[in-house]
Amino acid sequence: MIAIRTIAALLGGVLLFQASLAQAARTVTDLAGRTVEIPMKVERVVLGESRYIPALAILEGDRVVDRLAGLLPDFEKTAPAGYAQYLERFPALAGIPRVGHASADSFSLESVLSMGADLAIFSVEGHGPGARNSELIERLERAGVAVVFIDFRQNPLRNTPKSMAVLGEVLGRQNEANTFNDFYRTELDRVTDAVAEIPRDQWPTIFLHSRVGLHDSCCETMVHGMMGLFIEAAGGINIAADRIPGVSGVLNLEYLITDQPDRYLATAIGSVDLEMAVEEQPYVVLGAGVSEPVARRSLARVTDRPGLAALDAIREQRAFAIWHHFYNTPLNVVAVQALARWLHPKQLGHLQPERTLAEFYERFQPVELNGTYWVTLGEETP
Predict the structure, then answer these.
(1) Are the C-beta atoms of residues 167 and 181 closer than 8 Å to each other?
(2) Does this chain's domain 25-172 share its CATH topology with 197-376?
(3) Where are the domains of the chain?
(4) Cα–Cα distance for residue pair 32/149, rounded to 1 Å
(5) Which end of the chain has fewer CB atoms surrounding its CB within 10 Å, N or C?
(6) By percentage, how much of the chain surpasses pLDDT 70?
């Protein structure tokens, strides 16, 4: 009897040991298609792009900075007013080590290894290290830092729920991820279901002018990826789709004047917290802290320049501007709703992107909604 009890105890110990091993690490498949072994308990996280702090906050809420060990400073550089909101709410952000500047080349492997990180979250492609940085990934993993890739940029509408699910898995926030994904899919379906009922020959043509004012040359655009995908989802025909084969490129201004689009869409990279005053910025200004009149004046100023002013869509005030950073955030569904309502006011006038945006902040963000994120050129923004 004693021997049987001893054997049973040993077997129980083996099973417990095996269970503990299974719990010590788990695997996830990230957005680069990699199978990654993740520690059971993730305590120190490095963000390859700090613009993912709002995405992290969807899951972490008021504890969004607790596990951050290091980050690239792209958030404070590209969207300073949005970063300022988070800094005011979480002063500890200022003390989190920066592991480079705002590019993959500046990413400091040595800094990451010195801070004892156990997880690095990177974008498949973007401002920080991407899936092509194989040597960096290999060195991090050899040092015991798990690396997962997410994507709100390359194929945002398809990959946002997948990315949130991955983040939920690696951070132990599966319930929070599921709750957000239910919200996201419901709001996206409001658009795609309605657009599917509109014959394609009723879709207006549109030119998407990316980062207006950043370059002297005209005109940068997005097509087969990023915000270019928002146009199709919203029921618009991107006039650059047959001329630019990649994700982004430049469309000649002379072509735009010759083959005029029905609508003009600008993306706004201006911010109230840039070093220059709002009135002096060569960009459309949208985002945190921006009022609608300020946003509209900036759009009018930017489009009142040689070449652009010759476009019928601008002269006839069929022009719209949207916050540029919608292209790399789970907030992208709001942009799709706003675009769809603008493109199809009769069929899709029932959409309420303002309500969607307010609900997003109320339910999923630890900071308050404050600002304007889209605007029309002339009449009051619907």
Answers:
(1) no
(2) yes
(3) 25-172, 197-376
(4) 6
(5) N
(6) 91
Q: What is the DSSP string of 141-207?
A: HHTT-EEEEE-SSSSHHHHHHHHHHHHHHHHT-HHHHHHHHHHHHHHHHHHHHHHTTS-GGGSPEEE
Question: Tokens 């675009």 belong to which residue?
Answer: 339
3-state secondary structure at position 18: helix
Q: What is the CATH number of domain 197-376?
A: 3.40.50.1980
Task: Quote the Cα angle for 178-39-137, to 5°.
Answer: 95
CA 64 to chain centre: 17
Q: Max alpha carbon distance in the chain (Å)?
A: 96
Encode pLDDT of 224-282 as tens digits: 999 999 999 999 999 999 999 989 999 988 899 999 999 999 999 999 877 788 888 89
H-type alpha helices, the chain: 2-24, 53-60, 74-78, 80-89, 109-114, 134-142, 156-171, 174-195, 228-233, 253-258, 292-303, 312-315, 332-343, 345-348, 353-364
First to last CA, the chain: 81
> Rounded distance, CA 354 to CA 242, Å?
33
- For residue 98, count CB atoms less than 10 angstroms from its CB and return exposed for 0-12, middle for 13-18, buried for 19 or more: middle
Q: Which of 40, 60, 57 is nearest to 146 (CA)?
A: 40
Question: What pTM was computed for the model?
Answer: 0.90
Q: What is the pLDDT of residues 35-79, one digit of tens each?
A: 999 999 999 999 999 999 999 999 999 999 999 999 999 999 999
Looking at domain 25-172, its CATH architecture is 3-Layer(aba) Sandwich (3.40)
Per the structure block, which two tokens stand in for 3?
């021997």
pLDDT in tens, 315-364: 999 999 999 999 999 999 999 999 999 999 999 999 999 999 999 999 99
Distance CA(83)–CA(237), nearest Å, equals 34
Beta 45-47 vs 119-123: how paired, if at all? Answer: parallel
